Amino acid sequence: MIRLEHLTKHYGSFVAVDDLSLEVPRGVLYGFLGPNGAGKTTTLRIIAGILRPTKGRVFLGGDDVHDRPLSAKSRLGFIPDRPFVYDKLTGAEFLRFVAALYGQEGDAVERRISELLEVFELTAWKDELVEAYSHGMRQKLIISSALIHRPQYIVVDEPMVGLDPKAARLLKDIFRQFVHRGGTVLMSTHTLEVAEAMCDRVAIIQHGKIVAEGTVRELRAQHHAGGGDASLEELFLKLTGGAQVRDLVEVLGDGGERA
Amino acid sequence: MIQPSLWRVLEPKWRTALQKLREERSRGPGRLLILVLAASGFWLGVFGILYRILKYFRGVEDVGPLLAGKILGVVLLAFVGILVLSNVITALSSFFLSKDLDLLLSAPVDWLRLYCAKLGETLLHSSWMVALMAVPIFVAYGVVFRGGPLFVPYAVLTVAPLLVLPAVAGSALTLVLVNIFPARRTRDLLSIVALGAVGVLILLFRLIRPERLASPEGFRNLVEFIAVLRTPTSPYLPSEWAAQAVMGFLRGKIDLLPLALLWSTAGSFVVLGATLHRQLFAPGFTKAQEAAERFVRGTLWRRTVGVMLAFLPVAKREFVIKDVKLFFRDTTQWSQLILLAVLVVVYLFNIKTLPLHRGESVGFFYITLVSFLNLGLAGFVLAAIAARFVFPAVSLEGRHMWLLRSSPLDLRALLWSKYWVGTIPLLALALLLTGLTNVLLQVQPFMMALCLVTIVGLTFAIAALALGFGALFPQFETENAAQIPTSFGGLVYMMAAIAVLAAVIFCLWQGVFQYVRAVYLGRPVVIDAWMIWWFAAAAGLCAGVTAAALRAGLRRMERFEF
Is it the case that residue A259 has pLDDT exceeding 50? Predict the structure, then answer.
């Protein structure tokens, strides 16, 4: 279970996360939605122990991430939105290094590395320096690294960015199987189709606060969107105030040749 | 179609620079004050030394002004050499690897504007330090030879084309190299070649032993000496034209030919550079996008460092192996070891050529004094090396901190790994430098033991200071490790390291002076409470600084936010 209690984060006078409480039960794939700058990435980075909250607590299982960080983090796999990896390590070396950070080594790790590289079709690149990898390949390597120690919780920020359709489909299957086996996933995404198709529950966040929470069906019922069968996109736009779309013709111009 | 102005093309760059300045200003006057003090101290130092030399020359008839002109020619030639190397490396980033290139090349900006904008950027980036360095030098010439207020614009008019020429030449050389090798390979190649060239120059300069000119036997060739001084080094060197122009003005014989040569050559260089750019930039840029294919097995470090560190927990061991691999796979990092090796050889050569053991026996006092000063100098060298290799260690983890902070890695283990990866090579170098120099100086066993123990203590303290200050003043956005020590934090670290060095030397001198006096007066050396107290104070200082610096670094790292 991932639990956030009154989580607040200030950057100077700017409130990025505002008294946010949330509980993601075991075996659930939870979607974290919101417009740009809503506070999703900040929240996920606090859960991963990268940022310290101004107020509030984060629990992974029974462990407070900031009071018992080593115990909490040993069960977590974090996938960031930007794939910064050591350029001068090879893919296999990077995975070996990450396994070591979780205290794992030996033949079991070597087998796990081969298995993950095979699944993500990176085997041919395993001895190539990461500096030669494309954005998508780096993203796949980072996803592999988050899985290498067999975590119980996965916190993932925009997982589909940069992935080809095949890898995106693979990731969806991995996450579904992961929660089916009792794992917990908290995923932020802008791709509402993905959220609608994959997530058991979603929370919509704006200005650092949760403005709606539940299954997609519950949200539709709560907010009477589109007569009860609205898409998640319509619901999202209604809740986040993005429905006032500007006159596109004015923005795009006529698109034709100028006289 | 109307083309954007150069100012507009370079807008992201200068706006970023302005923003950085604003950020610096918002951090309070303390940083600015330290920077101003350090810069003024440096300028005054250069000015003071040159002023004394030039004033002396001015008093010597005939030879004096000639020698002053010759020195200016040599200094300007050295500047041009440094500038060409610096421009070659900078041009690679600004013309081929810069992040704004995709935007500029996809916009309807014509090739000439792009060339001029990028040439300007290269020139500024690679020349600002040399230009600042030139200020006290020209001020000293202006003051000693009474150049008057008009000398200021005249000097600017002379130096400006001297900055343009290496920028064009460097950019053109890079353009050709990128068309032959992939850009990333070119960068590797250039860093080795550039540092190798600097190393060889330093070595050659030192091995010809210029100090011999100052010894009495050097005056035998005075007539030849004057004859050599009167002839220009090479009539084709722009640095020589600049020296002639400046000395002509200062001696009241203004000759416009050197100035005309400088400006016309600079102008024609820009035209030729632009033509070359038009022909070679597009294929070169395409080639620059190719990554060098590098398959690596990486078993060497696992079988050596990995086996040696088998007793460590896996996280610490892998962290050390990772740091060692990253260092040796990055050419821009390890190539600096070439320069370091040359400097060590020069250092030892200097000690060897000291006139201490020639003919009659030299006083015991002088040998002990030199050995003691050598300890301070070795400490300073170690501090400078730590600034380059240990200080950037935390900054270089910046982009990867998401991984380290989200994993169950204890930050103490990270700091521990960084500390030992930096300290052990530094310690080996420290012992080598101090031990060998003391052998060359033929010091007494007491001094040898004292120097070795002290340098060990100093190395621990200096490495801890470098790491601690590196964490207190991190540069997470800088990808080039070589630029990190030149930041404000690097300056503060160097000042702190020198202060610690001075304090340790002061403590030790109290004890050593008693030893020297005893030996000098032929009395037995007694190690009494006074000596022990001061040696303990020095040891305590080293231990205290080590602990405090590492602790401060750890505290700061725990508060890092990404």
Answer: no
- Residue A145 contacts B, CB cutoff 8 Å: yes
CA A234/CA A240 separation, integer angstroms: 10
- Match 């022909």 to its residue by tokens: B279
CA A191 to chain centre: 11
Half-sphere exposure of B220 (CA within 13 A, CB side): 4
Q: What is the DSSP string of A210-222?
A: EEEEE-HHHHHHH
Per-residue model confidence (pLDDT) at position B511: 83
Please tell me the distance from the alpha carbon of residue A184 to that of residue A26, in angstroms, as a whole number. 5
Indicate the pLDDT class of residue A88, thresholds 50, 70 and 90: confident
Pairs of residues, one from chain A and one from chain B, whose beta carbons lie less than 8 Å apart:
96
Contact B404/B440 with Cβ under 8 angstroms?
A: no
**Cα–Cα distance measured from residue B361 to residue B522, given in angstroms and rounded to the nearest whole number:** 17
Question: Is the model's pLDDT at B216 over the cut of 50?
Answer: no
Element (H, E) at A17: strand A14-24
Sorted by sequence, the CB contacts under 8 Å of residue A202 that are 6+ apart come out as A30, A31, A32, A33, A195, A212, A213, A214, A215, A216, A219, A232
Is residue A228 very low, low, confident or very high in pLDDT (cuts 50, 70, 90)? low
Chain A residues in contact with B295 (beta carbon < 8 A): 90, 127-128
Does residue B77 sit in helix, strand or coil?
A: helix
Please name the residues in contact with B449: beta carbons below 8 A apart, sequence gap of 6 or more: none
Reported as a pLDDT band with limits 50, 70 and 90, residue A132 is: confident
- CB A100 to CB B317 under 8 A? yes
- Average model confidence (pLDDT) for chain B? 84
